[in-house]
Specification:
Elements (H helix, E strand, L loop, with lengths): L2 E5 L2 E4 L4 E8 L10 E6 L6 E6 L6 E3 L7 E6 L4 E6 L8 E7 L2 E2 L3 E6 L1
Parallel strand pairs: 2-11
Antiparallel strand pairs: 1-3, 3-8, 4-5, 4-9, 5-6, 7-8, 9-10, 9-11
């Protein structure tokens, strides 16, 4: 059974940085062969796609609101997906979820204070 565990969230001041990690266990495939994504959901809002990386890392996409500030990456040996978040803004406050293929993590809270 695939399990995804996110970590790295927390409270940070505006302008600060955080790096989220998502460790995948129980997978029977190489992480490189599936798309990986980060989503977020703020209270009262729908879950939105923040960043994605295609199979083999050939392409990445970002929401307009995070372009130039967030970077998605993965370590196929450690079965880990990362989201580097810089220049954080209060509007980035949300629960962040990773998605590997069709499986979701439980989420990690990111709170950015002004």
């Amino acid at each position: 059974q695939v399990q995804l565990v996110e970590s790295g969230g927390g409270l940070v001041q505006a302008g600060g940085s955080l790096r989220l990690s998502c460790v995948a266990s129980g997978i029977s495939f190489n992480l490189n062969f599936v798309p990986v994504e980060w989503y977020r959901q703020a209270p009262g809002n729908q879950r939105e796609l923040v960043a994605s990386m295609s199979r083999f890392g050939s392409s990445t996409t970002y929401a307009e609101s995070v372009k130039g500030r967030f970077t998605i990456s993965r370590d196929n040996v450690r079965n880990t997906v990362y989201l580097q978040m810089n220049s954080l803004k209060p509007e980035d406050t949300a629960v962040y979820y990773c998605k590997v293929s069709y499986d979701w993590g439980q989420g990690t809270q990111v709170t950015v204070s002004s």
